[in-house]
Structures are given as structure tokens and as C-alpha cells.
């Protein structure tokens, strides 16, 4: 337990399908699902694949590890007996890192190696994300052949600036193993693609003003640079474009989004694939109007494989084939109107992502969820995963349920299923439902009373994510008894949520619209329920107001010492700022601490202008640190390449921690405390992910602590099953867009 002396942070992952993603290919054209070939060893989640050119693969086979354990020779490559793939896998402590795979044609077997296996751990260790592997070099300069290099994205270098991406493109020499940075200092790149000659690499680069909070449609430009001596000759190719793919040295395909603001204020994005003539600068649209197309993979100067969605859908839709994401091939020479369908022929009721080209265009690859592993009517098992943590004294694990909460004595873990209909508890009695609803209301925001003797779990019930609708706080008493009862604690038809009890368990703090119910914006402030037993009912039913203002105070938690309440707030949002951030939520969320109504301290904000999101703060068990979910590191992958959920508001980003010793040292000196407005407080990035990691919980108990009865779920990767079916009889996917169930919007 010494390795987790400050306990464990648990969190929930949005956008991550509950059924593993894996990599497949189909011939062009396919005739049925039997034509589809599985390309990996099936271990963990695997995605974002590209083939390894034969000359680069032969260079890799000279590396000591592959020469000793690869089981292949350069002659095997020349004879077509072995081929290579590079892809992202989550098999290393949950990290999303690159793998080199050798695929043997004779028996369709695959051997998979980490980059640390191939090149050593010097440049390939620690908490990080890696993506978009491709290969450059291998061309002649006079009599010299330039070494092959692996080119890829990594977030391994810390960035101090807030709300800045960490995504940098590197290259690692296949002969020497030396790694160098291709992205210039101060720039941040995504989606590298190497030209057929191996001489140039195109990237989607964040603009000089940086990431501005865009959710689906990243504002990137495409630059090209030399694989050798990259700072020389880096130049702009395309303004407003992403995901480049070379059709030849002279033609680059890319995708571009076009935003439209709807009457509701929401933003709808339409997507198309274009082709740039590098010599003339002419850009032509490849895919027709009336469908969304993205993530191109060029086959030739005129032909390109893309992912399409032919008909937009709402979350309430039971999707038809046209509303799934499919792989199709378009030909500029044919006018682009007619497409060659690929995955519609193999798995019409399934989403397919990020195509790549094999065998010169004879086959097209992609990744999808492994719904073929499910039998009709099966439920999807939900697993808890222990992840690699960058903090030696803090453990990390991912819960496949929403709003995880752990009792103060570490004996019970509770969460809500992804349908927001059932509350699950894991303790010495096992894993089970302790409360569920069959009606239209949702359940969310689970939180244990801090006094474990009370055995009380708080939940919120009502319509989801609508500040104008009533939302009530309830208690589930005697949870361990399994009685499945609830006790209503709030009244008045206000929007009440996020209860957190005092350390002795007698009171709780919560947020409510009760003093702003008639306002257009339905502002929310914090309140104290003075008697957690009766709530607003009975003689002791008193509510005390803690904060007051026309803003949103939310996501509140009482400190272990009882001296402070931490919460997220928009109170410093400039009056000139737009009411909604990108048409979605108010934005400008920062984290504050309050000891009484007169002492409120800003702990950490996101952008320098306080734009952005720092949400769901929770205290460490010793009260000296706070974990949050935030966009402090912007985004780490092109969002349109990921599983999408139409009802999810935005990526929070990752889990971060900040230390607050400077605040605690001031004790109760109110005047000094009021002067603290430290936007530059150092933050620690805990997770590096393309997914949205949200709703953290910090427990004092380590995963190997015998008092933490829930730890068996982490150790054994134990599973629970949600309440609804997931598979169609024909092997398709019944979940929306991506293989996931209901995922929460930003809960304010």
C-alpha cells in the first residue's frame, strides 16, 4: 500500500465504448461479413491503425527485440509472408500508446510489441498518449539512403500553459532509436501523414491563438514539413482543415467542418472531404452535399476512402443504416457523386472508424466495436480497470459507471449505471442494485454520507440536465440492508443537486436554483441542509444559503476537516462574454473554496481569461489537494475521429490535481484568504486520454487494502451488466453512435 499512500482516484470515462474496439479489413469490394478479416491479437482495445511499408518493416526487423522474438525475416517480408501494422492499444496500464504488430499470412497470427520493446524505455515510458503512427524516410539523397523513421503524436512533454494542447509530433529513427521533435516549439500538431516518397509530413496544427474550446470541429490548419530537418520549409498548405492524407506527392486529401448555429443556439456541424492540388493550390470538394464525410485515407490521386454518416440522428432515434458511420470510397475522376460502399456490405448496423489502405487499395481497414463477440440478447459486461498513475503515491482506476463514490471507511463503492436508472453498490456482499426507477426520471450524482455508521447514500432524481425542471435530492437509507427505499429531502420544485455531507454526517451542502427560479438563466447557488435526516421536512427542516449571485455555483463537496467547501463556479465570467460557450453551456467554470459566505477563494481556473472548464472538484483524503476534471490540456485527438454522442455537451478533458497547502497555511485569517486569486497554481496532469474522463472521486484506501471490499472489482476486472440489451440478432449495435449507452451532459 506504500505505493498508494495518498489513496486512489476513481473516475468515469465518457466516449469509451463498453465493448472493445478492434481493427479489421475488408476487400474492395466486399460481398458479405465473411469477407471481413480481424487484424490484431484481440487483446484490449485497438484502433487508429496504419500499415507499415515493407522497407520500413525490414528496418524494424533489424532491431534487437524483433530480430530475437519477432519470428520473421526480411525474406519473409519480400515474399509477402509477413506484414506490419502500427496501431494504438490500451493494453499497458490503460495508457493509449502505440504498438508494432507483425502479422503472419500463413495462419493469420499476430505478434504485438510495445515501442519500449522495440526502442527501449528511454523515450517510451511514463504517463502519456501516443497516436497516428506512420513512417518516413527510406529515400535516396545522392548515394545515401535516409534512415526510416516512425513518426507519431505524443503528449509526453508537460506544458505549463493552461488550456494548451500537449500534442507534439516526433520521429524515432528505426536504425539508431534516436527520437527528435518535429513540431516546432510553441506549436502543437495532430494527425501526421507522410507523403509516398517518405520525404514530407503533413500535420493538422492548432492555430497561433491555440485551442478555443471547440468541441467537434477543431480549428486547425494543415502544414507540411520535411521529414529531415523539419524546421526548414514548414509551410501552410490548407487553411481550415484536418486529417491530411497524401494521394501522391502532388495531392493531399483532408476533411473540413462547417458550423451552423441553430435557432436553439446549438451548433450543428456538416463535414466534407476535399482534395488539394499542392502545385496549383486548387481545392475541390470530393464528397457530395447531403452527407457527412471525414477522416480520409487516400488510395490514389483520385480515389479516397472516408468515413460517412449519410443521415444525421438524434439520441432518441432508433437508427437506420444511413445513420451509422460507414466506410465508403469516392473517386474524384468519377465526379465524387457515386460511392463504393464497403462496411454497409459487411456490418450495416455498426459504426466504423478511421479507414486506412492496404495492398495498394485492394483492401480497406478500419476499427469498430467487437459487437460480433455478443450473442443476441447478451448484456455488455462492465469492467473496472486499474490504470497507470503519474503520481507514485496516488493510485488510479476507471469505473464503468457514472458518478463513482466511495464511503469514508472504504468499505462501499456506489455508482449509477449508464442509463441513469439504477444505483449499484459494491461491498462485502458483492455487486448489486440498491435502488432503481422505471419511470421517466433519471438518477445521478451519487454521494455517500461521510459518517459510515449512517449507511446513507444520497442521489438526485428528476429530468436530466434541464435547469428549468425540478430535480430532487433523496436519501437511500440503510443501503446495506438492500431495502431499496428512498427518502425525499428537498421540496419546492426547484433544481437541486450535488449533495455532499459534513464530516459528522449531520448536514449536507447542495446547489439549487431556488432563489433564481424565475430568472431566465436559472442561476444556481450553494445551500446547507441543516438536518440531513429530515431535509426540508419536519421541525428541523431548515436550509441556510451559503453563496449568493447571478451565476452558477455547482459540483460542491465538503472537506474532510469540515472547514471548507469546494465547488465549481462561473462567478468570474466577464459580463461581455457570450451567454453560452460554443452554444452549449455557460463556460468560464473555475474552482473555488468557501469557509463561510464572506470568504470565497478561487483555487484554479482554466484559461488565462478564466474561459474553459474546471469541474467536479473533490478533496484528497488529507484535504491538502483537490482533483478536478478539466480542459487544462485542451484535446488530444481530433474529436470527429472518435465515438460521438449527440447529447453530450463537451469533453471535460482529463483528470488533474492541484495542491492547496498555500491556502491551508493561512488558517482562518480571513483578510489574507480573500486576497488569494491564484490562477497560476501548479496543476498535475493525471490522465492522458482521447476520451472524456470525468466525475472523479478520491478515497484514502488503496486498491490492495483489505478494508476496501470493492477492491476485488479492480483486481479481478469484475463486471456488472446494465439493464438493456446491446446486440441485434444480425450482429449489429443497438447503442447510439459508438457502442456506449447514455452518457451525461455537462451537469451544471
UniProtKB/TrEMBL annotation:
InterPro entries: 6-blade_b-propeller_TolB-like, WD40. SUPFAM superfamilies: DPP6 N-terminal domain-like (SSF82171). Pfam families: PD40. This is Dipeptidylpeptidase IV N-terminal domain-containing protein. It comes from Brachypodium distachyon (Purple false brome).
